[in-house]
Amino acid sequence: MKEIVVIGSGNVAEALALALKKKGMGPVQIFARNKETGPQLAARCGCGWTDDPARLAPAGLYVIAVTDRAIGKVSDQLDFGGAVVAHTAGSVDLDALSSRIVHRAVLYPLQTFTRGREISLDDVPFLIEGATTLALNAVREVASGLSSQVKEVSSAQRAQLHLAAVFACNFTNYMYTIGEDLLASAHLPFDLLKPLIRETALKAVASSSPRLIQTGPAVRNDYRTKSRHCEMLVEKPDYKNIYINLSKNIWETSKKI
Questions:
Q1: Residues 142, 80 share a domain
Q2: Is the pTM of this model over 0.85?
Q3: pLDDT of 149-184, one tens digit each?
Q4: Domain co-membership, 21 together with 140
């Protein structure tokens, strides 16, 4: 693989740039508008940084790791020559990249990233797509150098996967937030839930289907417990609605097993 430039300095850009460095694949430059996080990330990667489009380094692959809404604008503003240009978003079509870019691609790591938290990408699924054979081969080479799990999917498939990830990750984490809030009302620490959260996640990973490991009053249709819980949530109507809807869906799903 020729030189790689990472565009962006947010969560995903940081994770990919550091992973590329660790695997001996660069990057040769960080292009980022943020004058604080851009230079910091470049320093950690041992490469140059710029926010000047005229000083964008020549490369074989440009990885655009910016917010979803900025992908089109960024790809249209910079001159990539005839290089491969890939974005890293799960829910954004390949064609969101500027139409003047011939070798458009997608390099999407299916993982949650938080600034300052460095994680291994060795087994993180990378979903790739390319408008040309050159583009597809380029992102496949990079993805294979970062992870053992690389799969070519369409934009429609990737969007569906991203939707599933929102439920499995983002919404699940919000449930933890609700749990923390409810515990705080009783002056209890969130740490009490951590062993339960860990075991639930481990069971889901180990099982052939999460449906098979569902527990709790909803799957048992324990009306008495559910009614008591709803009474406890009278002053938190949003949480009560979530509780009722989720309980209903869990029960309906469990009857199909």
A1: yes
A2: yes
A3: 999 999 999 999 999 999 999 999 999 999 999 999
A4: yes
- Structural domain tally of the chain? 2
One DSSP character per residue, 57-107 reads PP-SEEEE-S-GGGHHHHHHHS--TT-EEEE--SSS-GGGS-TT-SSEEEE
- Work out the number of other CB atoms within 10 angstroms of the CB of residue 190: 15
pLDDT tens, residue by residue, 115-125: 888 889 999 99
Q: Are 110 and 100 in contact (CB under 8 A)?
A: no
- Write out the residue range of the structural domain in which residue 85 sits: 4-153
Q: Does 72 lie in the same domain as 118?
A: yes
DSSP state of 46: T
Q: Can you read off the two tokens belonging to residue 215?
A: 């527990």
